[in-house]
Write a structure and sequence with these properties.
The complex is a heterodimer of chains A (534) and B (313).
Chain A (H helix, E strand, L loop, with lengths): L5 E4 L7 E4 L4 E4 L6 E4 L10 H10 L7 H4 L5 E7 L13 H16 L3 E7 L8 H8 L1 H7 L4 E3 L8 E6 L5 E5 H4 L3 E8 L8 H6 L3 H4 L5 H5 L11 H13 L5 E8 L20 H16 L2 H9 L7 E7 L1 H16 E5 L2 E7 L14 H12 L3 E2 L4 E10 L12 H10 L6 H7 L1 H5 L2 H9 L7 H8 L1 H6 L2 E5 L3 H7 L2 E3 L2 H12 L5 E4 L6 E5 L9
Parallel strand pairs in A: 4-19, 5-6, 5-10, 6-7, 10-11, 13-20, 14-16, 14-19, 15-20, 16-17, 17-18
Antiparallel strand pairs in A: 1-4, 2-3, 8-9, 11-12
Chain B lengths: L2 H23 L30 H23 L2 E3 L12 E4 L6 H8 L2 H4 L2 E6 H4 L3 H11 L1 E4 L5 H13 L3 E3 L18 H9 L3 E7 L1 H4 L13 E4 L11 H20 L13 H5 L20 H7 L4
Parallel strand pairs in B: 1-7, 2-5, 2-6, 3-4, 3-5
Antiparallel strand pairs in B: 6-7
Classes of the chains: A alpha/beta (534), B alpha/beta (313).
Chain lengths: 534, 313
């Protein structure tokens, strides 16, 4: 039995709290009375992951066993999640390679010759050869790359097909290969509750024309939260589209859940609570904090980006989309749910070095906005951790640096759009279409390794609910000019940030800090924690 | 006397004997008549062969370094095992030892695995642009491993000629046919240099598979990580009279791959299907050639057979 997550109140004798700060970490002293939310301890991984995968494929939920769905002469497409999952990338063997090998063994036994594997990148950047190799494993790579294992291309009109329109008027368009297959097997890694379900196919294999129906300001403002699919307008839209899609193509879902053993032994202190640190952990925390702070940013980034997570498989479920997703969510919440009573005036988060869109890349200012206001703010079920009109304090250097290959449209979004307006609605109306249809961004997306031209807009919309909910956002250690461009305020120290927050929420604010990553989701109930009077 | 004391005594005795041997081998340096300074542009390149590394004094120092420093360190880090040493019974220098190359630890491990009589006469050609660029490093590798510079950038022909001469003088060499370390630990295509040398000198080539060094000290790693390693020797191969260097090179490559397959029990992790180099693809009809391209092979054909052939045993 693993130890559940908990809320610890900072006392006078509490050790300093570790806070992620981009490509570094800092040890911060929070005011006495601050709540620090810690993740549950990692669950023990399945003892025989390969055996568990085979058992799941042979005993699926609401579906015939996979071998019964496979026969010679059929057209089989397998889609897998891209580099945005898991975070950080996991140690070899990646869970995708395990599932793929099991599925392909069964396909080979059934004599299925026409097999293609698609990396479901949607509008994300194409994965490089080395990244694909790491994800799918040497055996699959050698047998299929590059003709029958490839990145999805959402801008190839020849490779897309429209399947219809939902009752809400949402156009469903996906990969033609997937839509015209006798069977589509989708292999998921459910790192957070947002992943999986109907969202996998309806987003992963869909182009802009289809995504714009749920990746927009209105939908994301009514997504409360991303980690609570029943209360998420985005997930409801994906479900409608997914159900329509499944009337045309048979989908066999394989969803996997991992424990939250996020950092390798050398960085083990990041997985543990400060009060339980050994002497070695304390020394390592100091060394890592000092060393990465004094390194040039590119070197510090390289140190962290080389990290591979020792995640273990905690659950694998196969079969029909909806029952599989329900069981996967159950398994995920068993690892990640932390009960928290009451909201607070101020929520503090440390933005780590990696997010879904900067693996082997740079966390640029627009992504910092997305991480803080999109992901961390949304780590709740029930109600947000911070009250309406409260303040979000992020810790991140927020430098004006972009990856020129991966994020070209982000640079123009930052320069041309954010210099004019930060209002998501105005941005959506005035600029989105131009970026989405820009021929140069399309070329870079298709031929280079660039995110789609419209991607930075989605990152901005991701924070739409938080922007509406929060009274102010302060960035500790953030570059002043960059923060101003993003609409945030910059503070030199945590004490300054808390002082600035009092201008919005009043004196003696209640503060909650998320000790994240490792990832978790807070089940927030009303009452129990007295918020300071505004 | 306790076992620890006995071991310490034995180590001290070895050290003392080596010191005495080294002192006996010492000769006063010869001082030749001063000669006219060669102009800078006519001086031999830095890869010029230093002969001091093969002196008796250096040999004695090398034995001491290997016995008391290098090999015990390898024993602690890699717990090496040696397989197939019987293939070297009765073998006399010159030999060309042709191991796979995944790590800087390969050469010292091969040296450690050799019988002392063979080891003392064995040289290790090392990249001049890496090991002989800095003086301290060149002295270290020459003293520890009997390294000789191999200029792989500018003057390969001259370097090969020098190796040929060394082989004719009765030295064995450890030469990596892959050229440089494989970044992913897998076997890369063999270059024909080893086969060419063997064809020219008639020296037998011993295929060697060094297992596990990629985990011990992968390229780019600053420090080794303890990991079990093994050195597998194969039966020496001799170039046949009319056999071309290219054909002999293929035989050597197959022999090393077979050793690897036998050692690991399965082949697929290490032997990816060989992809043509850019020059092969550039040739008329190659993938990069201008003009109409030949139809690619039907990829759907045979994935199942390929898949089954890589099933782990």
């Amino acid at each position: 039995m693993n130890r559940p997550g908990t809320v610890v109140e900072v006392g006078r004798s509490s050790p300093p709290t570790l806070v992620h700060n981009g490509d570094s970490v800092v040890l911060q002293r929070f005011p006495v009375g601050t709540r620090v939310v810690y993740p549950p301890d990692p669950l023990t991984g399945l003892r025989d992951p390969d055996g568990a995968i085979r058992r799941a494929l042979l005993n699926p939920l609401d579906s015939e066993p996979l071998p019964a769905l496979l026969h010679a002469g059929m057209r089989l497409t397998i889609a897998v999640d891209d580099i945005s999952l898991p975070l950080p990338p996991m140690r070899w063997p990646d869970v995708r390679s395990r599932v793929l090998e099991a599925v392909l063994d069964m396909a080979a036994d059934a004599g299925v010759e026409d097999v293609e594997i698609i990396i479901a990148t949607s509008l994300h950047r194409r994965m490089t050869e080395a990244e694909v190799l790491h994800a799918v494993g040497r055996r699959v790579f050698d047998a299929f790359w590059p003709d029958r294992l490839y990145n999805f291309d959402a801008e190839d009109p020849e490779a897309l097909v429209e399947l219809g329109t939902t009752e809400e008027g949402e156009v469903v368009e996906i990969s033609k290969r997937a839509a015209t297959s006798d069977l589509l097997v989708y292999v998921n890694i459910n790192l957070v509750a947002m992943d999986g379900g109907h969202k996998s196919v309806a987003v992963g294999l869909a182009p802009y024309r289809s995504l714009r129906h749920h990746h927009n300001v209105d939908t994301l403002r009514h997504t409360r939260s991303l980690m609570d699919p029943p209360r998420s307008a985005l997930h409801r839209s994906c479900t409608r589209m997914g159900r329509l899609l499944e009337t045309h193509v048979r989908v066999f879902k394989v969803e996997t859940t991992l424990n939250n053993d996020t950092f390798p032994a050398a960085l083990g202190f990041l997985n543990r609570r400060e009060s339980e640190w050994t002497v070695k952990d304390r020394a390592m925390a100091r060394v890592v904090a000092q060393a990465t702070a004094s390194m040039p940013p590119a070197q510090a980034r390289a140190v962290f980006q080389r990290t591979r997570a020792p995640y273990a498989l905690t659950g694998v479920f196969a079969g029909a989309t909806e029952p599989v997703h329900a069981r996967a969510l159950e398994s995920l919440y068993r690892q990640q749910a932390v009960p928290v009573r009451g909201q607070s005036d101020v929520l503090s988060v440390g933005i780590p070095y990696v997010g879904p869109y900067n693996v082997n890349s740079i966390m640029n200012p627009v992504l910092v906005h997305c991480m803080g206001l999109g992901y961390f703010f949304n780590l709740y079920r029930g109600m947000p951790l911070v009250r309406r009109g409260g303040v979000l304090i992020m810790t991140h250097p927020c430098r004006e640096e972009f990856h020129p290959v991966h994020h070209p449209s982000y640079i123009d979004f930052y320069e041309q759009v954010l210099s004019e307006t930060r209002d998501p609605e105005r941005i959506e109306v005035e600029y989105e279409e131009r970026f989405a249809s820009d021929a140069w961004y399309r070329q870079l997306y298709r031929r280079s390794h660039a995110y789609h031209g419209v991607h930075p807009f989605y990152m901005w919309y991701w924070g739409a609910h938080a922007l509406e909910h929060l009274g102010d956002v302060v960035v500790v250690g953030g570059d002043r000019a960059v923060c101003e461009r993003l609409g945030f305020r910059s503070a030199s120290t945590l004490d300054d940030a808390l002082e600035m927050a009092t201008q919005t929420v009043g004196p003696h604010p209640s503060v909650t800090h998320l000790h994240c990553p490792p990832l978790f989701v807070c089940d927030v109930e009303a009452g129990g924690f007295e918020a300071g009077a505004p | 006397m306790s076992r620890r004391a006995a071991r310490a005594g034995s180590a001290l005795r070895w050290a003392a004997e080596d010191t005495v041997r080294m002192l006996r081998a010492w000769r006063p340096p010869e001082r030749p008549e001063p000669v006219e300074q060669t102009p800078r542009d006519r001086r031999p390149p830095r890869s010029a062969e230093p002969t001091w590394g093969r002196s008796d004094t250096s040999a004695t120092v090398r034995r001491a370094i290997q016995r008391h420093g290098l090999f015990p360190l390898l024993d602690v880090l890699g717990r090496p095992t040696v397989v197939g040493l019987h293939h070297l019974q009765g073998a006399r220098p010159p030999l060309i030892l042709a191991p796979n190359h995944a790590s800087h630890a390969d050469a010292p491990l091969v040296l450690r695995a050799l019988p002392p009589a063979l080891r003392d006469d064995t040289l290790v050609p090392a990249a001049a642009d890496y090991f002989f660029k800095r003086r301290w490093l060149s002295v270290a590798v020459t003293l520890a491993m009997n390294a000789v510079p191999f200029d792989r950038r500018h003057d390969i022909a001259d370097s090969v000629r020098r190796l040929e001469r060394l082989l004719r003088h009765g030295h064995s060499i450890v030469l990596f046919p892959e050229g440089s370390r494989a970044r992913d630990g897998r076997l890369r295509g063999f270059k024909a240099g080893v086969a060419h040398l063997a064809c020219q000198t008639g020296a037998p080539v011993v295929p060697v598979y060094v297992q596990g060094t990629h985990a011990l000290l992968p390229p780019g790693a600053a420090l080794p990580r303890p990991s079990a390693v093994a050195v597998h020797f194969g039966h020496p191969l001799v170039a046949q009279p009319e056999e071309s260097a290219r054909a002999f090179n293929e035989r050597i490559e197959v022999a090393v791959a077979e050793l690897m397959t036998a050692a690991r029990g399965h082949a697929y992790r290490d032997t990816a299907p060989r992809r043509p180099g850019w020059r092969e693809r550039w040739r008329p009809g190659g993938a990069l050639a201008a003009g109409p391209q030949p139809e690619p092979p039907d990829a759907s054909e045979g994935w199942i057979a390929r898949w089954r052939s890589t099933t782990p045993r």
